[in-house]
Structure formats: structure tokens, C-alpha cells
Amino acid sequence: MTTGNGAGTESGGAAAPTEIERALAGAVAGGGGDAVVEVLARTRLYVLVARLHADIPGWTAPLPTIRDEATRRTCVPVLTPGMLPPWHSEWVFREVSLGELARAWPYDVRRLAVNHGTPYAALVDARPKQLKAWLKAVERSGGPERGVLLTDSGGPLHGPLAHGLALGAHLAVTNGLIWNRLGAAYEDYATDRARLRSPWGIPHRAEYRDRLAALMRNQLVGRVQEAVLRTRHTLAARLGRTPTREEWSEAVARAFTGRDSDDRALADRSLHHIARYEDRLRADGVLAPDCRVDTLAAFDLGRAVNVVRLALGARYGDPHEAEQDVLRLGELARGAYSSWADFSLGYLMARIVHRAEDDGPEAAEPTYRQSLAEHRMLTQDPTSPYRNIPWS
């Protein structure tokens, strides 16, 4: 049996925090326990953990329990992404899938309480037979959705802070995370700390501040690639038009005359990759024939927003500091680009060129298709921040 504590109605007519809570409320209102399980199977779920316990190496806190006064049942409480409370320095969250819950379920508990006491609540039967159904639902769904645009209706939607957060929307879409939130978790406490360690090499706050400063200065996107683009931009300003491929190549060769052989070789490859993918983007209708990508700074700035959110989740900073950093990143982006479309093209070009350089053009093909799909989603979806927040 699945019931709701007010689920299926929106308090005071207010919008659900995200599409996830809206779907859950709809499933509960429809009265179908299977439909609720299907929603939960493709949703990130969270349990509250004391940070003191979360920091114990190799130990996972047992699932918490509460007593539901309406049914007098003991339940395991979980929250969906849109229902996480504000950031707290000593309380963190662990992400759990419905499958993980089924495998670690306490033998003497028979209910899962989702968003307990809220308008988006569901009380889900958790007897052994139902636990098996949870596992099957997760297998069918493939787990939490990725490649989706999730917006928190209660988060920043307009203004400078929303603008800054939207710089990180590419990675948020890639991972199926809410784009406009500075809060209790990015993914979850342990994962946020792990992602900072690898690939970012950030084990503590001091290193975080240093790495963020480097991202703000566009020092990680690739100095050679940026020099190749800067050379074309300078030549275009002198000629009053975009130079031909041959003119650009000759200018790069001159600019790199005094560099070592590795830099010269990388410059040649970068020019080739950039020209190739600009042609692809023109053919796919997202780069105008007379336009070009002049800087890859968007890649560092977009990633920087996500590093700020990871650090906040890892408790390497507080919300006020994170907000100031995101505002600064917004300022830097407006100084480097003239529109959301230009910013997005700079981001995806950097992502594709680096993948082609590291793993070869064949390996970059899936990255190109994914990046193109995300660019189109962010620039065309009517709910996207790129359609609703003015660039300047």
C-alpha cells in the first residue's frame, strides 16, 4: 500500500520544487503503488547523517528510522532532491538508491517514508515481497536519470546569482542534478569530497581556494589552445574578417616559432580539432556561418561553479562564501562572452577538443553528440535558464 500525507496537492498553489516531486505527487494521487515505486527507482534519495558519523573512515551509519504518528508505524525516512533542507555545517546527506535501500533494509521495518510530513510525501510498503519489486524497478529504470534539466522552483531563478549558477548547467544536466542550488549537497557528502580529491586533487579547503582561483583565471582550460584561438582573434581584428584556415595556420606557426616542439605540435593539433568541430557545429546548425569560437574560458568558468558547489557540499566553505564566488564567476563570464549561446559553444568546444586530444577523434564522437544535445537543450528548452535569464 502507498499513501500520501497531502501528496498530490501543491501547498497554497505553489509549484513543486522540481519535476521529481511533481511526478511523485502525481503517482500518489493516482493511487498506484507501482507508479510511486517507478518514480523512486529513477530518483536520487537522501538520508540524513551526522557529519561526525559520516567522517568515520570505512563506516556507514545505519538507516535512520522515525515513527509515523498517523499509522503508528516505524519508517525509514528519505528525501527527494527538491526537498533537502538548507545547508548545515554538522548535518550532511548520503545518497541512496531504491535498490540500495532494498538490499540494506532493516528486517523489522515495514514502511519507507518519502518526504514525510510535506505536501510531496509517500508512505511506501517495504515488506520483503515489495523489496524484490524495488530491485526489479531499479533494473528496469537504470537508476537515477541523467541528461535532464532539473530546476528548483524555490532556488534562484533570476538575477546575478541565478546567472552565475547557470554557468554550471552543462555539468548539472550531464549528471541529472539541480542547476540552481547552493545547498546541503551537490551529489552527496561522501561523493562531493571524493570528486574534489579526484579528478580535482583537492583534499582540503586551502587547496580548494587555490584551485578555484586558477579556474577563475582560466589557467586549466589549456594555455596552448587558448593561444591558438587568441591568435585567430587578433588576426581577425586586424583583417576586419575571420581569417581563412591557411591564414590562421600561418599566424599560429609564427606565434609558436619560439616555443618547444611539444607546444608547436599541440598547437597544430588544436587548430585542426577546433576547425573540424566548428565545421561540424555549422553543419549541425548551432554555429552561424560567419561566427567562430574565440575563447574556451567557459569550460573553466562552468566547471568552477560546480567546484564551488562540490566544496559547499564537502563543507570546505559556507553558503555566503559560495554565493560570492558564484557572483564573481558570473562577472568573469560576462566579460568573456556576449551571450548564453556563445558561452555554451565555448564550453562544448573545450570539452570536445580536450577529449579528441586525450583519446582521439573516435573517442570524442560520443562526447560531441552528448555536448550538442545539452547545448540544444539549454539554448532551446523554454524552461532553461539560458532562455529565461538575460546574459547582461
What's the structural blueprint in terms of helices and strands?
Elements: E1 2-3, H1 19-29, H2 33-41, E2 45-50, H3 51-54, E3 66-68, E4 73-78, E5 91-96, H4 98-103, E6 111-114, E7 122-125, H5 128-141, H6 160-166, H7 169-175, H8 189-197, H9 205-216, H10 223-239, H11 245-255, H12 261-283, H13 297-313, H14 319-336, H15 340-359, H16 361-380, H17 385-388
Parallel strand pairs: 4-6
Antiparallel strand pairs: 1-7, 2-5, 3-4, 6-7
Q: Helix and strand string, N-terminal first? A: EHHEHEEEHEEHHHHHHHHHHHHH
The separation of the N and C termini measures: 51 Å
Number of DSSP helices? Answer: 17
Beta-strand residue fraction:
5-15%
Biggest sheet, open or closed, and with what strands and sense? 5 strands, mixed
Number of strands: 7
Outline: elongated
Strand order of the largest sheet: 1-7-6-4-3
The helical percent reads 40-55%
Please give the radius of gyration in angstroms: 24 Å
Can you walk me through this structure?
The chain is α+β, with helices and mostly antiparallel strands and 392 residues long. 53% of the residues lie in helices and 8% in strands. It is built from 17 helices and seven strands. It has a five-stranded mixed sheet. A two-stranded antiparallel sheet has the order 2-5. Strand 3 and strand 4 form a beta hairpin. Helix 1 runs antiparallel to helix 2, helix 6 crosses helix 14 and helix 13 runs antiparallel to helix 14. It starts with a strand and ends with a helix. The N terminus is likely disordered.
